[in-house]
User: Fold these one by one.
Assistant:
Number 1:
Amino acid sequence: MGMVTSLKFDKYCGAVLVNEEFMNVRYRRKLYLDSAQSLLTAEMADAWNMEAVYAGCGNPGVNQEVVDIVRAQLKERFEKETKNKKKPKPSPSLKDVGLMCAHALQKIVRRDMDLKLHLFFGFQADDFNRGSYKSDGQSYEIKQDKVKKKATDIIHHRYSDRNQNLYKETRGELFGYDSKYGISAYHLDITNGNVGFNMEAYEALGNGKYGVETSFARFLNNVTYPMRERGVCRIYGMYELIRAALAAREAFHCTGGNFNIVYVDGRGKNHKERYTEFVDEQSRLAMHIVQACETEYISKEDMLDLLNMALYEGEKRQKVEKELFARSTNERALDLILRGYKVHEVAEMATKWGKAPAKKTAKKSTKRRKK
């Protein structure tokens, strides 16, 4: 997966954004939009007053396995708590879920490491640490320097092949809300298996991280300290999030495709009000609205109004799209921009192509054909 980015709007709400473009060993382009998933069912989220979203980049298989393992553990814990109502345990925090994700990641890394060592040499990591292994009832000592060096490289993620490079690029983010810490995020790294609390207002992972960080830096450098404490409104925060993702798309590969946006609002009374996912046409329309503002075909005030209509007010796509072109300074030029044309000379092209040329109708011949 190419890119994962998130932004905390205030103490109670924020959003995480991922893209669907995925490059397999840097030469095969795939589209995969399941890289941001909720770890809780609606029943679990309502009982614990919590939301947890796992978003990952790198190897989709590793990230999906982390989601499956943590979901199973949380489901088992929830079922035990519902059966034993006399001694209820305290609700888990997002930090506890982050530790579960880290342990799941460590488990996957250790299993894959043992499989690779067994494939090459017939022993596992514990056998290598012990200095010997058993095979067919006989014990063999590990003495060869070349075997030791290659095994050490595999254990420390220094062994390089095309699949291993993709494996090492895997990163994860746990984003969500709980009643103890509010909106928060945790960073997971496959190379060290650790989980770290994100103290910043944003997170950026994957190939487009530098483009995202540059955009967020411009935004946060203009925000005063009281504004940072108070936070920004959800409409403006979503604008900055999509704007940062678009900035990364312009300069980095593996950042294309559609966006998947998950919005979390801790002020909601239940899971349905706290957790909202914008995908497909809805996220594409929001991207086009921000893109129209960045290319100066609509004003910033109109952009925020249209973004609110498209995401939060639940207006129909056709209505918002019609309003977008109605408020633009040049409908034809905006249409070309959103279709993927280059910015240069688009206005001139739109002026020339304002009206489609009339089709010429061929005149029927009055001459009779000779038999």
Note: Residues 354-371 have pLDDT under 50 and may be disordered.
Number 2:
Amino acid sequence: MTPRTTSPIPLLAFFALCAPGLAQGTVDLMVTAKMGASVWLLQQTTLTQSIDAQGMMLGSEQALNRVLQFTVKDVDDKGQRLVEARIARVYGSFDLPMGMGTADFDSAAAPAAAGDDEGDGGGMDMSGGMKALLLAGAGKAFTVKVDARGQVVELLDDAKALLKSTPTPALTGRMLGAPTWDEDALKELVVEAFGERPAAPIAVGGSWQRQAPANQAIAPATTRLDLKLAKADAATCEIAITGAIDKLAAATPAAPVDDDADDDSNPQAAAERNIRDTLLMKNGKLTGVCRIARDDGFVAAADSTASIAVEMSAGPWGEVSMSLKSTKKLTRTTADAATPKKAEATKSAGKPATPTTGGGKK
């Protein structure tokens, strides 16, 4: 009788299929980044606004790019990581009001000459203030503790100091697209570097939920994320993302300071209070995808699109409706991205816009 031989190939295939993160069984998406591991990421955000102010149609666009570096400084016996986040460079552009042109900004460029942002009472008067808000945090680093599932559990003292030194935009600034830096914003910046991860091992097709701040919203808002492990192999895990954006319930307002007590003496403050009180958010939604690299434990790439409709009463400006759409992309990059190329360094700080009708873009 011919001896029967057993090929090792089927056995190897069986173990491969049963390996964590492959086709069968559950996938454990615990953070695996080791002490000393580091990643450079480029975060590209665009914001498009369409505004209807009593029949006058206005529009604006903003591009905000951040070059970020994340480094694991330590890992404790509970799997928590001490992570340094560095905002190496911030650059982009934004439209000036009333079709008055486009302003560029770059934290890595040479400082502007005195008076460059001082205009004749027009849109350039406010561009300097808007640039300061958009450039907030550039060149700074802060440290956080991250748990084994990629969530920030503590902001260290340098992170709190960064928040104290960062300007907070007024409501009118947020309406123009200025980002808000607070504890949630810093935490979310780090969470995005590790990607979306469930609290426990999960099979492909399994789902979980998470609450996240809606940083591009005009008023305080939150995004209810529905997450699903769509794919998993030895190289990456892909998470599908959908979500709904809702306005947070208003906190009990603080007593007004003396300057705000009389609407006649401070109409700007009165208008902002009226906007906060009457603002409604509708049809807020988000879709996206996140890919986690399994070799180094950081996000490999991510992108999302969010949209929301806003209605408000703007006091003397009457009823205003806005349509906002933002897109965000996160991709791997290198330290070279923190330094502008020659063509970027010589780019004009302001450029004329194409003539428009009706006071702005349609």
Note: The longest helix spans residues 183-194.
Number 3:
Amino acid sequence: MAKVMKLSHWSESLVVDVKLNLGLVNEDVPGLSRVLVNLWKWSKGIMELEKNGVATSFNNSWDQLTVLVKTHRGNSSILKGLWDALTKVDLSILDRAINEASTQVNVAREDTATRAMAEALRGLMPDSPYGNHPEALLGVDLSRIKPEDVRKALDNLAYYSITVVGGDVDIGGSPANAKWPTVRDYGDGEVNVKLSGKVQNTIAVAYPADSIYGRAFNYMAFNTLLGGMGLISRLYVEIRVKRGLAYYAFSTYIPLGGVGFLIALAGTREKYVNEVKELILKTTESMSMVTDNDVEMIKGNQKGRLTVRTESPEGLAQMYSIIPLYGLPEDYYSRYISFLSNLKNSDITTIASELRHHYVAVAGP
């Protein structure tokens, strides 16, 4: 499968999505990519691109680090300098980059939603790099990162995939073959983390799920009904609408190369924590019963969201970037539409019966 994917779009924008070999599960030094992002933001190369009308953003994740650039189609030649900008940083400001990254991590650790999710993942996958969180980086000390660690990462810098929307551009660089670690064992249990100065608690319940190479379509449909449809999803209706116990309640399914996970979250006051926790578990169990009306709602919601995401060049790039990243068929989303058109109740209820492990984390005052 090609590592470069090119798509057309009606707008005058040119968007390039680059997946680098610096994800949480494949970097030699944990947290290095967080520091590199700051070095890049302050580098002369990136600043020069910004001066010429190129907007650049970075996103750390488990499997990769994403560099997303957007500019006018007439600026395509300028992007030839992107790879050069990524491989040249000023190591004299490494301490400053580490301090900034450490502050960002500490802020994430103090956020109840991020912390609860991070603790739930750590409990669910304690022996896997997937069991950490790319923003919270639990147990990681960024001050241990040395200049030689950065040099090695830049010497080995390569891309897993490049997705271009609205033009034709060569940013340079070399491709890399991705290898995703697998998760052998899952944990069950619960942890309660106290964070001072907080008003609300966040409850996160993490379940193991299929990777992007498994029954991702089934899990996407399952998550849509459970907590991915906003105000009409089961978690929101059961916890907030019917009982008024939470500020928010939703779920997310994250399919990755080596694993997938489903996480249900709700924010509530301390006196309601136990009740909301039980409601999350019971509502997830209730997915063993799905009506024809539920199926129709899933179909409409997902087809509509796919259409909305493709309206912007950024959305199109981000949506389709998983195809070259994971070596998926180019008609991946056409296959998903076909799956939705033929969606059956059993496609969802089967998933509910297989959620045998879960880990609960509560973060708050």
Note: Strands lie at 4-7, 13-20, 55-60, 65-72, 159-165, 189-194, 201-209, 248-255, 260-268, 359-364.
